[in-house]
Amino acid sequence: MAAELVRGQNHPLSRNRIEIRISADAPIVAGATLADESGRVRDADGVAHPGAPTLPGIEVSRQAAAEHRLAVDLDAMPETVHRVSVLIALPAAPGRPLRFGALAAPRAAVTGLDGTEVAAYTLTGLDAESAVVALELYRRQAAWKIRAVGQGYAEGLTALLADQGLPQAAELARGIEEAVAHGLARSVPARTTDTDRSRRTSASASVTGPDLPGTASAAGSPYDVRTPGDSTGRPAAPAEGPGGTEPMPDDGRPPASDGSGGFPASDGPDRFQISDGPSRPQASGGPARPQDSGGPDDPAAVTPTGAPIDYTHPKRRQAPQAQAQAPAEAQAQAQAQAQAQAQAQAQAQAQAQASDAPEAPAPADGPAPPVAGDAVGWSMDERLYNQVWGMFEDLARSTAAFRSAVDFAESRLEKELDQALSDPRSRLGSAGDVAREAAQDRQAQLVDRARAALDRDLAQLTAESEVVEPALPPAYARWDNPVWHGYRVPTEPPMAVRLGDLHLPESTPLRIPMLVRLPLERGLWIDSGVPDASSYEDGGELRDLALRAAVALAARLLAVHPAGEFGVQVIDPAGAGASALAPLTGAGALDAPPATGAAGVTDVLGRLTERVDLVQIAVRGGASDALPPGLDTSRQLLIVNDFPHGFDDRAVTRLRYLADEGPDVGVHLLLVADREDAAAYGPLLDPLWRSLMRLTPVPDDHLADPWVGHAWTYEPCLVPPGSHVLQQVLTQVTEARTKRM
Amino acid sequence: MTVNMTKGQAISLEKKDGGSLSAVRMGLGWKAAPRRGLFGSRTREIDLDASAVLFADKQPVDVVFFRHLVSDDGSVRHTGDNLVGGAGQGGDDEAILVDLARVPVHVDQIIFTVNSFTGQTFQEVQNAFCRLVDETTGQELARYTLDGGGEYTAQIMAKVHRSGSGWTLTALGVPAKGRTFQDLVPSILPIL
Lengths: 741, 192
What we know:
The structure holds 2 protein chains of 2 kinds.
Chain A: E1 3-5, E2 10-12, E3 17-35, E4 47-48, E5 54-55, E6 58-59, E7 65-73, E8 83-89, E9 107-111, E10 117-122, E11 131-140, E12 143-153, H1 157-163, H2 169-187, H3 197-208, E13 246-247, H4 320-323, H5 326-345, H6 349-356, H7 380-422, H8 431-471, E14 496-503, E15 512-517, E16 524-527, H9 539-560, E17 566-571, H10 582-586, H11 597-621, E18 635-643, H12 649-661, E19 667-673, H13 686-691, E20 693-695, E21 700-704, E22 711-716, H14 725-740
Parallel strand pairs in A: 1-10, 13-21, 16-19, 16-20, 17-18, 18-19
Antiparallel strand pairs in A: 2-12, 3-4, 3-7, 3-8, 3-9, 5-6, 6-7, 8-11, 9-10, 11-12, 14-15, 14-22, 21-22
Chain B: E1 10-12, E2 23-31, E3 48-56, E4 59-64, E5 76-78, E6 94-99, E7 109-116, E8 126-134, E9 139-145, E10 154-163, E11 166-176, H1 181-188
Antiparallel strand pairs in B: 1-11, 2-6, 2-8, 3-4, 3-7, 5-6, 7-10, 8-9, 10-11
Domain TerD (chain A): 65-162
Pfam family, one (chain A): TerD
Organism (chain A): Streptomyces fuscichromogenes
């Protein structure tokens, strides 16, 4: 039976008189080169081609054809020949394909003279190549073997021949072309010549298209974070975060491993899938982006001399034929993108610059330059959201790879040191020192390599962050982003909002925006009692900072919702937060002044409780139009400062009711509190604290990502000192609201 | 194109021109045996599972299987569990993708295994195959046919291991017994 070879596979030849049959679905040129021991073809006499079809031991066809039969007599080969490379190429003739990717995979078969197949190789995976080394026959200890090669050259015969060491590759390639053209003229009647090369090339470019990575993984977009990805019908594991670190942003997942070598702790027939958070296409590649410009200038040009060999994988870049057209198209694309961004978000000037970035040429070998909005989604908002989550996941995973490599290096070092110590031979002399040093070297080397891999990933993510940050809409942007200066009251609520920044110790200064979906599904708790806040001598300072973070967040939520669709109410029982609340009160952004005293607390909670209750009844009864006319149905954020100050038991119960039932009907909680203050309640309030997402006014590592569970350091988004952006934005919000009323 | 790799055959994943493969996929496909008899709805479903175990210096450091679909570092991804198999017409019912460039530096071997979770031996499985594919080109590197195999419920398919600067794929095809990959660890250790 004939052996079906894969690329790189070899096969012994049992006979020396053979035939090589090549078939393709269009006329192609077939030839062979005879190389010496070192793999070099000495001169043009070592090449059998249509212009010189017969060499000792081999004969090829005189013309291009869809079927070739090359007769080979290996016994007749000169002793100096050690390798015969069988090559195929596409003739450069008008109206013919320019790349093997446009044809079905050619097939090369080695047969005996009687036609029985010895081995065959189908050249799959060809794309932009126009010349390919299909097979090679080589001497191995006096016997001949055959190997499937499939090495293609996008630059054609010249590059192929030059790669074999031929000095006059370009001339020979031209000679072959001429001979073929001659043959073609003789054998094939000239057809209607389609000389519109540019049209053909652009058509072929659109057929090839860019290599779209991982379109299939669109299913696992970050939205799935609520219902963690169980695509197979198995129930997702109940998601309750581990006690120490608060899972973020929604649910954590049960720890995947029990620490013993990363194997899952549970085993048994009740197979729960680990709920994994959002996944997304790998960030390494990007769809539809201009690739490196290292290709040939114009494939139509007659045999460019000394063209570089194409070492990049054909699928990883656009077809060189397309590249003549590609820059223009890519530029147009990038501009269209820039316009789309500008329109969609009415962005400030800075963004136009950001979207200029993709037009810059890429370094020849590095990854493609990142582009803002390089993710799936229906809108730019959604694409940026997905991209940010993708960056978040990539950073989590890259860091996990780094940490596990470092841990492994350390444990291996320990083991080896122990061994060196326990080895009696090493107690005497310097053998022990040598062993110890070798172990330490091995550890240092592994850590260095891990560091290099992490640095590579960090560089890519940093570059991505540099284009993404300026392109973010207000809801996702830091307060120092120029987009806030061009702020306009939106007409639609955003899909998510930035709660702050996240980073890992390894990743500084790179910061990932912490975006959570709106409407918020959990209440927020800004902890004014961070345990290791000893640097803040005055506890009041921390409280003040916590309230300012809350105010910045409330202002952001107000600003990114359309006028009148989001309201903020404040309970400040002791009136201690008056100065921190000034931006909200000063701009008139609150519906009512902050409620103070026990009476104020009772009043506000009572009204909100009633609202939640009524809306719930209406929603359950399917009669949302039957609500009392005076009831404000806009979303509400309730800021509670200094909880539980001024709260009686009844108020606490109401607050818990709001925390549990509010989010579903548009009432959200933002608690500014020190848990210690509520210590008197004992464990009764634990469920309340757990139900809230804990944020901190100062950097603190308490948030766990949903994939690996690193402890991420959270930093709130604060308004830069001296900036008036908050007042400006809130003034606009208030104006828009008064106009509406 | 069917490429049947023989046991122990090694393929360098480095291309001849110096570039190397960047992604491989292990695909697994099978079909539940048709049931003859009155109660057609009581099908005899077969659940095969593909897993990948990452080893560093002969120590397992991470695993990708139906309960942990992505390795912590993100380099190895399982496309999701399939409990019943497909039509067995060549499509992969389960697949594991490996992004070789992103595999952590200390991981030097990745072992691919197939287990019969429902306990049928490979003799009872129909149209089952396992193949390794160069994900960038879609070219099949190796293919095993599992059905009609012996009285065993698992197979250690192949290993991808570092050699020099690149990776090498070695076909193993070692039969074993077990429900999930954990049961296979004793069988894996000798062939690392």
